[in-house]
Each structure stands twice: as C-alpha cells, then as structure tokens.
Sequence to fold (158 residues):
Amino acid sequence: MSLYDIPLTTLDGKSATLAEHRGEVLLAVNVASKCGFTPQYEGLERLHETFAARGFAVLGFPCNQFLFQEKGSADEIAQFCSLTYGVTFPMFAKLNVRGRQQHPLYAELTKGDGRGGGVRWNFEKFLISRDGEVIAHWRSTTTPEDPAVTSAIEAALG
Fold:
C-alpha cells in the first residue's frame, strides 16, 4: 500500500488520504500540545509558509501516547494550534504512532532500515519525497530550523 492510499481523518473529522498531496514534498510530524517540544510548532509553521509555494507541506498528526501530552479534543487541539502558534498547515485526527494500535501511516513511515526506527517521542519528523518515499527521519531534538532539515527539504524540492 502506498502512503497516498492510507485512510486518514482530518482534525475536523473528514475522511482523507495523502493523495491530495501527491507530488508534494511532505514533512509528517507527530505533535502534542503539552510537550517540551511544543514550541516547534512555530518552526514547523515557518517551514510550511517558506516552502509551500514550491510544493511542500507540513502535516501534523496529534498523538497522546507520550505522557498523555495531547489529551484535548479535536476542537481544543485546533484552537490551541491556531491561537497559540498560528498553525495553517493540515492537521489530522489523533492517532497512535507506535505499539499494537499503531496507525498504518506510521507503520509505513517507520518500516525499513536507515530511517532511525520507530517513534520515540513527540515531534519526530519524517520527510517524504514527491513520489511518496520516506527519505529522512529526525528525532524530537532536531528542530524544524536545523540545517539538516532545511537542506534536505531544499534538496527534495529540487
């Protein structure tokens, strides 16, 4: 199954897939509102704004698996992201990024060698090429502004 075929739900409850982003470079990030890394929303939004015109999008996937740092409802998450960080990039419904209930998207993102393995915490970043292949994975401590991230995005955009 392609990443583009995996059923998803948007934060406002609509059925979706990544097919609408086919041909774009994507940065999928598992996010949380009450995490020490939550201020990374600012950098993620800047990346989204900086590169969107070139065919890039950040995609946020709220997750409550790490110390219950995303307890809020979809409406609370949307309000927090919008009011606190001005988030305009697409956000999806809460999902599990690891374990027995791991969402199929994250099963695909984390499979294979050379990508750093499974998700360990909030705000891990997966860079997806225009053809739907995972080409990089960064842990939470790597900020959106890190030169490794921005240069990889630039290279993927061509």
